[in-house]
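Changelog note: in this version the structure field was regenerated for every chain. One regenerated record is shown below for reference.
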Amino acid sequence: MGYESLAEVGGMLGHGGIVVFDDTVNMAKQARFAMEFCAEESCGKCTPCRIGSTRGVEVIDRIVAGEEQAKNLELLEDLCEVMTDGSLCAMGGLTPLPVRSALKLFPADFGIKVEVK
């Protein structure tokens, strides 16, 4: 396993750490944690990271609650895109990776009743 081989399949090693979960872990909670961590640790310099991560937590909560899931999934994807493309540092830019991955691979953990793109 290396940086290049992970990049070929859309993965990233980051700072060299890997977190492994068993099948009892709720990935919606982990996605929320990623956004929450970013919101708490953000330096506040750039809006995509500072506001995007805070709103990301709120939107994930609404998705899990079943509130207007299609609309909120679209909003979360937009937030992730803005964070990825507009953050000044890697923390804000990379926080969306586990969120998008969890949505794509574990939609049931979010209680999603609509198709995830």
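Spot check on this record: The helical segments are 3-8, 27-41, 47-64, 69-86, 90-94, 96-105. The domain at 26-110 is CATH 1.20.1440.230 (de novo design (two linked rop proteins)).
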